[in-house]
Structure formats: C-alpha cells, structure tokens
C-alpha cells in the first residue's frame, strides 16, 4: 500500500456552461450573503402569507349574510 493517497475525491474539470448554470457548486460559501438571502426569502414568504390572510378575511366579510330587520333595529338602539 502506498501512502500517497491516490486520486480520492478530486474535483472534476468543469465547463463554463456548468459554472454558469450551477454557480453555487463552484464558489466558496459566504455567510453574510447567505444571511441576507435567507432573510429576503422569509420576508417574501411572510408577505405572501399576509396577502393570503387579508384576502381570505375580505372574502369572509363579503360572504356574510345580510342582517335581518330585527337585528338592524336592535343595533340602532
């Protein structure tokens, strides 16, 4: 057995197309960029959920049955 270690998991050569399509595989991790990107992702998801919630509230408010005359008279007093 030799102690040189052999090839092991050497990095295969990549084309320019591969680097263009999958840049995350060819660059070093960057913590500040990752934190900013994750924050923006969760802000977008939160905004979409908020819009869905307000739309559902508006729809339920529009679909309520109209009040009867008795209820309107009681509310006026």
List keywords for this structure.
77 residues, mainly alpha, 3 helices, rod-shaped, transmembrane helix, transmembrane, UPF0708, membrane
Description:
With 77 residues, this protein is mainly α. It has three helices and no strands. The chain has helices at 16-21, 31-62, 69-76. The chain has one domain (16-76). Helices cover 60% and strands 0% of the residues. The chain is rod-shaped and about 80 Å long. The mean pLDDT is 79.
Largest beta-sheet details: none
DSSP helical segment count: 3
Mean pLDDT: 79
Order of helices and strands: HHH
Provide the fold topology.
Elements: H1 16-21, H2 31-62, H3 69-76
How would you summarize this macromolecular structure in one to three sentences?
This protein is mainly α. It is 60% helix and 0% strand.
């Amino acid at each position: 057995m030799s102690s040189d270690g052999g090839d092991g998991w050497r990095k295969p050569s990549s084309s320019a197309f591969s680097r263009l399509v999958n840049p995350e595989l060819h660059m070093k991790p960057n913590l500040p960029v990752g934190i900013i990107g994750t924050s923006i992702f969760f802000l977008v998801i939160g905004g979409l959920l908020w819009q869905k919630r307000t739309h559902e509230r508006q729809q339920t408010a529009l679909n309520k049955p109209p009040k009867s005359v008795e209820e309107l008279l009681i509310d006026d007093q």
